[in-house]
């Protein structure tokens, strides 16, 4: 087994995945990238630029593809995987009554089923490098309190939170750490997407129009490093997420009232 620690990152072709890949690569880690975006992964490789990076095309919805990708990365990394960063995800906004069956299934499959498949596939590798290995999942502030106009997305992120908490207990005996990141709106290309197929206004416009803060992606990369090296189960990232976390815990009645007062859900 090699001495250089290794992290495999889904959604490594852009956004949070790319920022975390560069952050860890600059700190001497061997970085694995999994994504359906081959060009994006090449760009991330160039940004890391030290040769200790390996890319593998991966659709997180395909369970057998997970085994193939992690096996290939483990070989490339010298026989070890210390961290799996379950990060790949897609946005979906708008009223539930307006979301198509295809949109709902795709969001559930990528955001939730992909996380479960990744955890399942990574387990033997993380057990081998334990104690101190880690499964890190990207949840969201949408996993703290359900957001009007984002019921499907919120459901997936509550699910990721539940998976994290369940496996934190389940895998403790194996010495595997399980953690989540709960960012609010992060400055990544996802903000430039429309919330759903029926919307003609991108998410970034909606966020800025509501006066909400957009957190720099570098903040999430630093939070990922802290999460993997610390003992906090959930790491909340960004002012909006921290405010919501406080309110959901200590002022749930006020949060409910404010939530019900939202008259223009995301995607309208």
TrEMBL record:
This is SDR family oxidoreductase. Belongs to the short-chain dehydrogenases/reductases (SDR) family. It comes from the Bacteria. Pfam families: adh_short. Gene3D superfamilies: NAD(P)-binding Rossmann-like Domain (3.40.50.720). InterPro entries: NAD(P)-bd_dom_sf (IPR036291), SDR_fam (IPR002347). The keyword Oxidoreductase applies. Keywords: Oxidoreductase. PANTHER family: OXIDOREDUCTASE SADH-RELATED, RETINOL DEHYDROGENASE-RELATED.
């Amino acid at each position: 087994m090699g001495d250089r620690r290794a992290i495999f990152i889904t959604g490594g072709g852009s956004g949070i995945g790319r920022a975390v890949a560069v952050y860890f690569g600059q700190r001497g880690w061997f970085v694995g990238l999994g994504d359906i975006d081959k060009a994006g992964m090449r760009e991330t490789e160039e940004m890391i630029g030290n040769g200790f990076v390996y890319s593998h095309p991966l659709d997180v919805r395909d369970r057998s593809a997970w085994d193939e990708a992690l096996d290939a990365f483990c070989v490339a990394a010298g026989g070890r995987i210390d961290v799996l960063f379950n990060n790949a995800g897609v946005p979906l906004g708008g009223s539930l009554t307006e979301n198509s069956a295809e949109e709902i299934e795709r969001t559930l499959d990528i955001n939730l089923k992909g996380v479960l498949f990744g955890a399942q596939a990574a387990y033997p590798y993380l057990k081998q490098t334990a104690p101190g290995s880690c499964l890190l999942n990207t949840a969201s502030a949408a996993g703290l309190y359900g957001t009007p106009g984002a019921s499907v997305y919120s459901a997936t992120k509550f699910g990721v939170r539940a998976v994290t908490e369940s496996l934190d207990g389940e895998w403790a005996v194996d010495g595997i750490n399980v953690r989540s990141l709960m960012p609010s709106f992060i400055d990544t290309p996802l903000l430039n997407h429309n919330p759903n197929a029926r919307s003609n206004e991108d998410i970034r416009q909606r966020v800025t129009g509501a006066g909400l803060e957009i957190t720099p992606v570098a903040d999430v990369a630093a939070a990922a490093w802290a999460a993997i090296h610390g003992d906090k189960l959930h790491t909340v990232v960004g002012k909006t997420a921290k405010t919501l976390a406080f309110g959901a815990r200590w002022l749930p009645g006020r949060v409910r009232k404010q939530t019900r007062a939202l008259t223009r859900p995301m995607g309208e």
